[in-house]
Amino acid sequence: MKIIKNISKTIVLLTIVFGCTSTTELGKEDDLAELNNLKEEIELLVNSGVCSGNSDCDSIAFGSKACGGPKAYLAFSSSINVELLQQKVANYNALETAFNQKWGIISDCAVVMPPTSVQCINGKCTAAY
Questions:
Q1: Are 126 and 118 in contact (CB under 8 A)?
Q2: How far apart are CA 14 and CA 4, in angstroms?
Q3: What is the pLDDT at residue 24?
Q4: Which is more confident, 23 or 92?
């Protein structure tokens, strides 16, 4: 009888351990999928813009490195819903910061500089460095 209790306890313990591991991995994959979906939305919004001159263009800091600071700068046209872009990017940046902290993500600590200018080239805003 004592052996059966020990086996039962072991099975329950293994189920808990493996159950938690699986859930943790799923949680990370879900978080990453949420980030990727939002990134795609942002890229679609940015890519929908057109410009006719440099004054139609601007840039926004995008992403969050684990060491701090943005991962990149997105060039965009004022022909899009800029307020919506700013909201989506702010949400993405906050989510990525939380993701980095939650999952112990590491990155290089190189500072990404903003573009020196954003130019309208062939109807698309392009960052110049």
A1: yes
A2: 15
A3: 65
A4: 92
